[in-house]
């Protein structure tokens, strides 16, 4: 059963930031523009914010990113998500289909909150049983 809210991954969140700058249109723009329909995991926010802060002179991008996160919501990393991620990791490791820790954390966050994961890496998240995946990027 699809959820009414979606969890954005790095690629999609970056594309949204680029669309703010007029660079990259999304197939599902009306969906993310309704900011109540999307959220980001705190682990992803840290990754993007670290990248932005490492660049000089990106104050405007950081402000836009902060605004986007405030409007859409950031889901904290909880004990339940950590346990779910560890279980997903173990299953993928045993099956020889391991993916990055970041992708596992995003998937575990989506699973715990019963959210669809929005990504362009359709193959990776689909390795996680019961994870609903949406593709918003064109191509």
Walk me through the structure.
The protein has one domain: Rossmann fold, CATH 3.40.50. The protein contains 6 helices and 5 strands. It has helices at 10-20, 29-33, 42-54, 59-72, 79-95, 101-112; strands at 6-8, 38-41, 74-75, 116-118, 133-134. A 5-stranded parallel β-sheet has the order 3-2-1-4-5. Helix 5 (79-95) packs across helix 6 (101-112). The radius of gyration is 15 Å and the shape is globular.
SSE topology sketch:
Layout: E1 6-8, H1 10-20, H2 29-33, E2 38-41, H3 42-54, H4 59-72, E3 74-75, H5 79-95, H6 101-112, E4 116-118, E5 133-134
Parallel strand pairs: 1-2, 1-4, 2-3, 4-5
Helix pairs in contact: 3-4, 5-6
The Cα radius of gyration reads 15 Å
Share of β-strand residues = 5-15%
Q: Low-confidence spans: pLDDT under 50, at least 5 residues?
A: none
CATH class, please?
Alpha Beta
Arithmetic mean of pLDDT: 79
Number of strands: 5
Give the structure's gist in a few sentences.
This protein has a single domain, classed as 5'-nuclease (Rossmann fold, 3-Layer(aba) Sandwich), CATH 3.40.50.1010. Helices cover 52% and strands 10% of the residues. The chain contains 6 helices and 5 strands.
List keywords for this structure.
Rossmann fold, globular, 139 residues, single chain
